[in-house]
TrEMBL record:
Pfam families: ParE_toxin. Keywords: Toxin-antitoxin system. This is Type II toxin-antitoxin system RelE/ParE family toxin. The keyword Transit peptide does not apply. It comes from the Bacteria. The keyword NADP does not apply. Belongs to the RelE toxin family.
Length: 91
């Protein structure tokens, strides 16, 4: 059984880079901890328009991700404040 890993889309990378360095660090630390323990995590599913995606909470920030179990891959699609993240459309 291999380890989980993650990829960050260009959009999520841009989202991350616009944040304060301290917030960036918190998000990165949470992502690595999340990936290390993913087999014991219960992903939190989202609804339309993000059906099939999941969320991870880091303070007031939300990370929207997709899971590909056969590849043991988590793809990070969006990183944004909780007040605006769900108004964004996947695409």
């Amino acid at each position: 059984m291999g380890q989980w890993h993650f990829e960050i889309t260009d959009i999520a990378e841009t989202d991350l880079k616009r944040l304060d360095p301290q917030i960036q660090r918190r998000i990165k630390e949470k992502l690595y901890l999340f990936i290390e323990n993913f087999d014991s995590v219960a992903p939190l599913p989202l609804h339309d328009p993000w059906r099939g995606f999941f969320k991870l909470r880091v303070g007031d920030w939300r990370i929207v991700y997709e899971v590909e179990p056969d590849k043991k891959l988590i793809t990070i699609h969006v990183i944004d404040n909780r007040d605006s993240v769900y108004r964004r459309r996947k695409g």
